[in-house]
Amino acid sequence: MKNITLAEISLNVLKELKKIGKSIQAKNLCSKLGLEYEILMTQAVYGLQQNGLASYTEEYVTELVASSELKSYINNGLPERQVTNRITN
Question: What ranges do the domains of the chain cover?
């Protein structure tokens, strides 16, 4: 058995993965651990993979996120609707 030295962040990730016990998306793991995605992948997951302690697969995911402008339209209505409401009220 060889000795492996892990950074604290890698050890924390490994413990969390063991606790979860199944595959998890990196963004969800980031949320659980309070880490940024880049830090998780470069400082923890890569090192765990190099030591044969974890592995990952990459998938391309398209994620749509509402802009602040869209959120404003959802809350206040489209500009045309706002004008119509002011005229009729």
Answer: 8-50
